[in-house]
Amino acid sequence: MPSVHANGVDLHYVTRGREGDPAALVHGSWVDLRSWSPVLPGLAGSMQVIAYDRRGHGQSTFAPRAHALESDAADLGALLEATDHYPAHLIGHSYGAMVALRLAADRPELVRSLALHEPPYMGLLDDDPAMAPEMERMRSDLRAEQDRIRRGDLEGAARDLFGYFAGDVTVWDRFRPETRTELLRYAPRWLEEFSDPATERPPEGPGLHELLIPILLTEGTVSPAFLHRMSAALERVLINATVRQLRDAGHDPQITHPDLYVATLLAFLVERNVPTM
Questions:
Q1: How far apart, in whole angstroms, are the C-alpha atoms of residue 263 and residue 266?
Q2: pTM to 2 decimals?
Q3: Residue 221's pLDDT is what?
């Protein structure tokens, strides 16, 4: 499978579709580009899609990131330029949505639209005094899971974190053993990502406030309430955002509800008059 040397690392990617605008899929934590496999066929009918392994994931180069979010956004921009795949519709999941938004703020000329699913910007909830007790608990829990990974208890941290974002404490134990082994490879990468202060809030500065491209914020109706509150807070920060709920879906609609997710993405682009053909 192809790869390009971009921003100092080799980034592995796949492409699907031959017609329409370019689109790039940015995966979240704990996974690699294979997490997009269920939605690739549906998107490829309308767009030229590229999905890639972020630095340190899948078959891409492992390299430390002193500033994880900044590095990942720079990698994405370099990939789009190296493959002549821009301006692109960026579709990002969880942490990958943060990467997509950071690139749009830093390099708006590379981005045609954004579709962001539940980026967990915890700092956005600090603006609501009523959330203070819950935020204190969330940050305490997050620090505890980071410490568990540092101590080597990768599975204990993964069990708690997957349950937290799924709203179901049994979800980890329902994965196949080989799936759990694969996911645990990325525990150190998650630690690196969510130790970066830049993941607390959307990027500051004029780039974000002048971002006029269409932005879709999706949220699963069965996702935990704190993710809904983060989406609502993010909508208030962005100028041109629309929120769509994915019925019966949770934090991973690209895996659990791929047809619904694809239909929502494509309908948004039609509604906002962003051509994909």
A1: 5
A2: 0.95
A3: 97
